[in-house]
Design goal:
Order of helices and strands: EEEEEEEEEHHEHHHHHHHHHH
Strand order of the largest sheet: 1-2-9-4-7-10
Distance between the termini: 16 Å
Number of helices: 12
Shape: globular
Structural class: alpha+beta
Helix content: 40-55%
Strand content: 15-25%
Radius of gyration: 18 Å
Mean pLDDT: 92
């Protein structure tokens, strides 16, 4: 399989809302179904080839909210597109809805006034020009930001920084809220309870370690905040829909090349 990646940080105006842009072009893809795994990001995907095909829908551009189970995506042999990693607390600024309204859902990009964006991006010949267009479009929406409550923003920052390895009671005390109030405000804005979000973050950390070549599951479990390897395997089944071993065999060969340092491009 032939794969090229292009990864870029957004313009500084956009960066508080979007972690990075990822461009991809793949040819001779043999994996027919890709598992879209839970992560800390709301995901914006734009296909520059055929539409993205999932159960019940087929879309050229989509926004996927935070979720706690894998999204199964049908793959064509040739694919090209862009994926944007959005901070859930920036979704209100970009789209006028909360991340909670998107939680567990997939929405058509056209619902947010961006239905022409896939065609506009497809007309541009290089990743650099495509990323520049994304900067322009998203910066225009970032002019009047809608920030979250400071306490909520701090709680999410600390939870992300610890990759979910933090007690919710301790986190609530650190920001001066009760555990119940934190849970209510967190779920209302992000769509997941704090314990669910922490669970996703630990799972995501384990996935990063596996992508980096750490295939000793016992050590991955320990470094990711799981009790033991059995706990990791059970969580992987619940969140990915398969065991870590099966995911390593099916998906890892297609994903390792994705880890291009931010700010660098592979060939367009």
């Amino acid at each position: 399989m032939s794969v090229t990646w292009a990864v870029r940080e957004p313009h500084p105006v956009v960066r508080p809302l979007v972690t990075r842009y990822v461009g991809y072009a793949q040819d001779d893809v043999t994996l027919t179904v890709h598992r879209g795994l839970p992560s800390r990001h709301v995901t914006l995907v734009i296909s520059l080839a055929g539409p993205v095909r999932m159960a019940g829908c087929s879309l050229q551009g989509l926004v996927g909210g935070l979720h706690t189970s894998a999204v199964l995506i049908r793959q064509d042999r040739t694919q090209e597109g862009l994926q944007l990693e959005l901070d859930p607390l920036g979704v209100r600024t970009l789209f006028g809805v909360t991340a909670a309204e998107l939680s567990g859902e997939v929405a058509d990009l056209a619902e947010f006034g961006l239905g022409t964006l896939p065609d506009r991006l497809r007309e541009l010949p290089t990743w650099g020009e495509r990323f520049a267009l994304l900067d322009d479009v998203l910066a225009a929406r970032a002019v009047d930001p809608v920030p979250p409550q400071p306490e909520l923003g701090e709680a999410w920052r600390r939870m992300r920084g610890a990759d979910g390895r933090v007690r919710v009671t301790d986190l609530a005390g650190e920001i001066g809220w009760s555990r119940r109030h934190l849970g209510e405000r967190f779920r209302a804005e992000l769509g997941l309870a704090p314990k669910q979000a922490a669970r996703v973050l630990r799972f995501e950390r384990a996935g990063r370690l596996l992508r980096g070549g750490r295939l000793d599951l016992a050590s991955v479990a320990a470094e990711s905040g799981f009790y033991d390897q059995a706990h990791l395997t059970n969580e992987w089944r619940a969140l990915a829909g398969c065991t870590p071993g099966r995911w390593i065999a099916e998906e890892l060969p297609f994903l390792q090349d994705e880890e291009v340092p931010a700010g660098q491009d592979s060939p367009a």
